[in-house]
Amino acid sequence: MDIFTVVLVMTAVTYIPRLVPMMFFRSDMIDPRIKRFLSYIPYAALGALILPGGINAVSGMPFVSITGILIAVVTAWFNRNIIITVAAAVASVYVMLAAGILTAVEL
Amino acid sequence: MKRAGFMDGMAAGLPVFLGYFPIAVTFGLMAKSIDISLPEAVSFSALVFAGASQFVGLTMIQAGIGAGEIGLAVFLLNSRHILMSASLSSKTSFNRFLVPVIAFGVTDETFAVSSMRDETLTEEFMIALNFSAYAGWVSGTAAGHFAGDFLSTALRESMSICLYAMFVAILVPEVKRLRMAGTTAIMAGVCNSALKYADIFMPGWNIILSIITACVFAFIFFRSE
To answer: Which of A27, A76, B120, B208 could be disulfide-bonded to A85 (CB atoms 3.0-4.6 Å)?
Structure first.
């Protein structure tokens, strides 16, 4: 597939939702029910992005991936810094891979 | 009221730059791993400039899904920006010749940072903030594509958790604040897993159906919140 075609399509569908409201709408003009429906999208999107893809984050090693994600959850629970959470998850996966922990466990 | 200017925007943009860079490195690495060239990867980040959407795009390209379905999935994923963009413009009326520039830089992170400001937002603030984020994103993509050859396999494999850790890092603080955020996310995740297991639809549709299903449930059951 031509990558540039995908890039251009994605550019359009990313830019239009950012541009059009800022040009034509004001927040107080949007129906409150639509507003409420849209307000759930970030959470739903994040949930669908994490599961089930995250289980196979480290290809072929579901238990390493799940442990890494759980460590990210715990780290994020106690601090709001995205960088620290990402670093903790990467470090934990690195240690598991280097030491061979859980790497052979299959689902 | 005090106005947030250019230097305020640069200061607010630094953590966003630092947060975007490693994630963009992962994007550059992932792009390279599925044989996307450096110019393609950099133009991806330079033109699209959207975190999660770009990873979804890569995953769908890898799965051989067509541009139309990728566009639909990404549009749905980005529909939240309609509200963010509208909300920003309801707070401040930006110069209409600069709106196309400011709107280009609306991302989850820049929106969150700018809407937390107490001062009146200026065009200079928005452009400085968005440029910091953009610089981190594009340079990180190029660095990741280059560095792919120099990183060890173990490090590269462990960096594949980055994206999911980032999603978790954005989601968890929201879940602590709003119980319904967690319920909605879990509902979408379970739905997406079930759809993948059922294997009825093209993979591109699963995420769209899961998001809509979870939002409909949330809309019905969290009436009071």
So the answer is: A76
Instruction: Judge: B59–A69 Cβ closer than 8 Å, yes or no.
Output: no
One-letter amino acid at B192 equals N
Residues of chain B with pLDDT under 70: 1, 90-91, 116, 202-204, 224-225
Kindly state the greatest CA–CA separation across chain A: 57
What is the reported pTM?
A: 0.73
> Among A16, B58, A64, which residue's Cα sits nearest to residue A72?
A64
Give the Cα-Cα-Cα angle A23, B127, B71 (nearest 5 degrees). Answer: 55
Element containing residue A65 per DSSP (H, E): helix A62-78
CB contact under 8 A, A17 and B85: yes
Which helix H or strand E contains A53, and what residues bound it?
none
Sole residue written with tokens 């396999």: B153
Q: Are A22 and B102 an interchain contact pair (Cβ–Cβ within 8 Å)? A: yes
d(CA B57, CA B34): 12
Q: Parallel, antiparallel, or unpaired: how do β-strands B3-4 and B120-121 relate?
A: parallel
CA atoms within a 13 Å half-sphere pointing along the CA-CB vector of A10: 30
Query: Would you say the C-alpha torsion B48, A50, B187, B114 has a positive or negative sign?
Result: negative
Alpha helices in B97-161 (DSSP H): 99-104, 108-115, 123-147, 153-159
pLDDT in tens, B67-101: 998 998 888 878 778 877 877 776 677 888 999 99
Chain B contact set for A13 (CB, 8 A):
71-72, 74-75, 78
